[in-house]
Write a structure and sequence with these properties.
Among the domains are: 1-154, Alpha Horseshoe (Serine Threonine Protein Phosphatase 5, Tetratricopeptide repeat); 493-575, Alpha Horseshoe (Serine Threonine Protein Phosphatase 5, Tetratricopeptide repeat). 71% of the residues lie in helices and 0% in strands. It contains 34 helices and no strands.
Amino acid sequence: MRLLTLVSVLALLAGCANVAQEAPAMPSARTDIGNRTDWIDNSKPNAASMYYFLSGSYLSFAGDLGVAQEVFNMAMAHDVGSPQIRRAYFSNGVKLYHAVPAPEGNAGLAELLREARRDFQFDESMLLNAYRLYEKLNDKEGMQWAVSQLNKRFPSAWAYYFSFAMEDEQTGNGDLRLLAKAEESNPGDEHLAQMIALSWMNRDDDRAIKILQELAPSMLNETLLQTIMASHNDASLPDKHFASLSYPRDREAMAGFLYFYLQKADPQRILIHKEQIVQTEDPVLLYILATVALKQQSMDVYHYMLQELRAKPAAPETESKFAAVMLLQAIQQNDKAGMRDLSERIFRTSDINLAVFSAYLSAELSPESPEVKRAQLAQDIQNKLDESLLKDYLLFVLLDDAANRSAPAYLNYAEALFNKGFGDRADFSVVLEHYAGLNDEDTQISYLRRALQRWPREAMFLNNLGYLLLSRPPSNWTEAERLISAALKQEPDSVHYQDSMAWLLHLRGDYEAAKVYLPAMEAVAEGSAELSYHIGMIYLGLHNTETAIKFFKQAIQAETPQGYVLKAQEQLDLLK
């Protein structure tokens, strides 16, 4: 992509030769340009400068920041007086050097700022950026310069806030009149409001709380709000605040509240709101409540949640995450009825993993080591949970390699979930891999048809079913083409899907059409007997025997899948 871009730029240079035979010199160094109080536009647009400006803008938008910086530089050479081009150059440079690790990135930012102060005119956005960059670089002189320029030329809420912040850092006692002025003149910038609120913290907590409560509910705002409320002299304030929240309007704020006190290891702040949380029926909020109840062994909250769960029809897809957490508590308490009911509401193996590793074994709210807790839970499962595939899976997760997708405990439970209409794509993929390893095409086709009823647009399942149908009589090939085409439409660059289509075309005897897919296939075929065999057969159909033999030999060297190694060897024997 970058090579093509540079070729295009060079081609344009040749095309613009009649416009600018020689690039004008850059302006000489000046010390007063960055301090100008007016915005002077001495630009002289021309075809070359406009082209480079638009090309640089496109490259910057596309994320090719290094090339964009060079192209903007060429644009400046063709229009030495354009502040717009310099603004784009500066903005792109900021993004470029932010993406470069320190210390090289910081050195690049420092040089960019020196260049801009020497030669560029700064507008308000550039000055705001400059202040933040100088702050990042811990350059006090630069921060002071940017603040001075902002106050002189663009007095605004950010200018007042930066003035306060600098004074507060230097003296520990910033002028609160500047902070108040920033608050009053804020045009609605949420980030600025958050910064102002944090600055009022421990100075005027009520004022800080009021600012944050007037912002749109979000997890970040709630975290900031609780940070202030938690230190307020009214200890009941956080609970009164949570009680005032309304679901679903304040969902993000409610989640922020719960996460905040989960991290602070203050479980009672969460447990006392069990009725309000349960009434939301929100899976995320209920997962947090169940996690805290498990860690605190709160049987009151456990029984309340279980009672509410039993009172409505099962909805495993939304209940699965917190049902898995509650199941662990039911096992600990040897609640047989609870274990039975909760087991039926678990939807995915990943939800069990989340319950075990994130809810039960994490260090939050519990002083015991993960090793001690792991051993205790495994013992409880062994002694209290009835024999089942779920029990086998739980013991596997706790005592073995939970990432082993071929383990019988994983496979059997995943297949049982799928056969009940549960499981997610990852669970089904484990089942599919198992039957593919057994070369059981009939079961794969049956399961894939059922999977596509649940996930009709899943490209991998579309392709796999289509490819398997190619081993069936030609009457199945029209359906195979439809399925493979649908997969390719979603992921046209997938070599596996291209291979499926190439093989279909080969079976139909359309070798020229199959030939289109060969370059992509050949690029990744080494190590795959299947791909190498397919390529060899297509070349054989094209009467290119020499190349066909090359790929048949490559298939044999690949060693897997073994079935295709044997097929390649058969073709070589026939060609001798």
